[in-house]
Amino acid sequence: MKTPRKPLQTVWLMLAISWRADRRRSIAALVSSSLQLIGLPIRAIGLKLVADGVVTHSTSRALVGVGFVVGLTGLNRVMAMVSLTVRMRLRENTQLYLDTYLMQLTAGVPGIAHHELPEYLDRVELLALERNELANPFNPISWTLAAALQAVSAMVLLGSVHPLLALVPLAGLPAAVFTARAHQGARSLLEAQAEETRVLRHLFDLTTESGPAKEIRLYGLREELLGRRRATFDRLERSRVAQAVQGALRTTAAWVFFAVVYCLALAETVRLAQQGRATIGAVVLVLSVGAQLSAQLNDLAYCVAWFVRTHRAVGRLLWFGEYAERARAAVRPADPAPIPDRLTDGIRLEDVRFAYSGAGRAVLEHVDLFLPAGKTVAIVGENGAGKTTLVKLLARLYEPSAGRILVDGIDLERFDVDEWRTRISAGFQDFGRFQFVARESVGIGDLPAAQSDAHVLAALDRAAAAELPDDLPAGLATQLGREFDGGTDLSLGQWQKVALARAMMRLAPLLLVLDEPTASLDAPTEHGLFERFAAAARDAAAVSGAITILVSHRFSTVRMADLILVISGGRITEAGSHVELMRRDGLYAELYELQAAAYR
Asked: Is the pLDDT assigned to residue 37 strictly greater than 80?
């Protein structure tokens, strides 16, 4: 898995992120970090003046040198405080900007197929691990530039003593390179271990979250999960230690080489001073600059490694932006068509096939069917048969791998995705738990009416959940979810009722999808709910010719449907009314009888 290499574009994005987040502090960060670092080597000039003033008995020269040292030391301390304050505030503003940017990117992808791609999940994991690098991408740029200027100033100062001494910092380049490579190697290893790191996180979540808690205790899984996590961690750690040791040996050898070169340079300076070709101040300057040089080169190596890490993290962010744009472009209609206000014919699927990216076997294949306008259609079949995939194709959460879907004779791909979704409504089995106040958790199913109690209460009634506000401490104003102060948690069945009410907010959709809407409800509630569904379907059909699709594993609840579709092995194997399918004595009749016998 490699991030596309677009160095200049990525550097530009690093600058743009910081500039958009806080342009004034971006400039201040560059100036303050540069002044902070450059002042250190230049301070050696003051030490040289002090030493030469003492030797030549020149008080004025010595005082100038003292003033120079004191002034630059003060400047360094002030700039350090300013730089820290500026960078912390810049980091906060950049983090806020990046969080918003990532939310826009991920929520802006039209479909949901990317949530099932290992490559996408690995990149998400790496972005989470690289949050510090992303928090302020301008810092490594400003500090790398400042560190480079610091090294250049050291070369100029040493060269003022003797031209060859200007080459001393170059002897530290191998050490800087090896240090940077060690940092980079650690980051590359982290990327290669992204999937196993996700395993570690998964094992941690299993033992700390409430969902699996009962089964972990019931089956005695604590030691098993801890053992797996330890084994995985140890395997990752062995690779990390081996790489760290290898990097440390190379870096140590390079620093020894630099130390030898520096000692030779210092000896040469002393010899020049003994011969009268250099002053005592020059010896002090070389001592001062040399004492700082190893730290400066180490800082430069760290800053370069920091820059590279941030560059790669921002490169991944760039990949997300490009992926989102490709996904939007893929569904942007080349020949747009208006969405009908009312369905007069229906929805037709012609030889539709769907397979997940990288999967060899198709989930749906050779699907040909017609969903008549104004009708209620039930989809039944065994688990994994492709029922939910079919309704996600109709909602354009997935795009067909082959074939086409027609709405009143118009290819669905000609409709703008966002506009199409304003004309459909859906309640899914794996519904979201929006921990807002109850009014909003229901109302967001139709944002223009989200704050209207009348609309929300009507939707709750259509979802057979009219009593829910009375069961909440503050009615519709109750904060849902225990994660917030004063919040009230709901049972699984209550959460599902909220999701169903959300699906009932839109009064006249062209398509209403209810995917396993009663999975978490008891039988009496289920019966009452399906009666409400039937009434809501009739109302919607009268207004907009709406098609209502019910996906259910309970055959007794779908008898009222106008059309029942049986999916098996990714294909439509039977279609007809309940009476017609029972007469055929096929798979539907067999499954119906088996389920009915279980309730006798």
From this structure: no
298 found inside a domain: yes
Domain containing 444 equals: 433-507
Question: Same structural domain for residues 501 and 530?
Answer: no
Distance CA 364, CA 352 (A): 7
In this predicted structure, the answer to whether residue 7 has a pLDDT above a threshold of 60 is yes
Compute the half-sphere exposure of residue 133: CA atoms within 13 Å on the CB side of its CA: 22
End-to-end alpha-carbon separation of the chain, Å? Answer: 55
Instruction: Confirm whether 365 is domain-assigned.
Output: no
pLDDT of residue 523: 58
φ and ψ at residue 509, rounded to 5 degrees: -75, 160
Report d(CA 527, CA 134) in Å as an integer: 52
Helical ranges in 109-130 per DSSP H: 118-129
CATH (domain of 560): 3.40.50.300
- Can you tell me the distance from the alpha carbon of 160 to that of 49, in angstroms, rounded to the nearest whole number? 14
One-letter identity of residue 394: L
> Which amino acid is located at 600 in the chain?
R
Measured CA to CA, the distance from residue 537 to residue 106 in angstroms comes to 33
Partner residues linked to 378 by β-bridges: 550, 564
This model's pTM is above 0.85: no
73 and 149 fall within a common domain: yes
> In this structure, what DSSP letter does residue 478 have?
P
Domain count of the fold of the chain: 3
As a residue count, the chain comes to 600
* Residue for token pair 């505030």: 89
CA–CA dist 164, 179 (Å, integer): 25
pLDDT digits (tens, 9 = 90+) for 250-299: 888 988 898 888 888 888 888 888 888 888 888 888 888 877 777 777 77
C-alpha 259/C-alpha 251 separation (Å) is 12
Phi, psi of 401 (to 5 degrees): -75, -25
**Same domain for 284 and 157?**
yes
The span from the CA of 355 to the CA of 323, in Å, is 19
Boundary of a domain, candidates 507, 522, 542: 507
Would residue 356 count as lying in a domain? no
Q: Do 518 and 482 sit in the same domain of this protein?
A: no
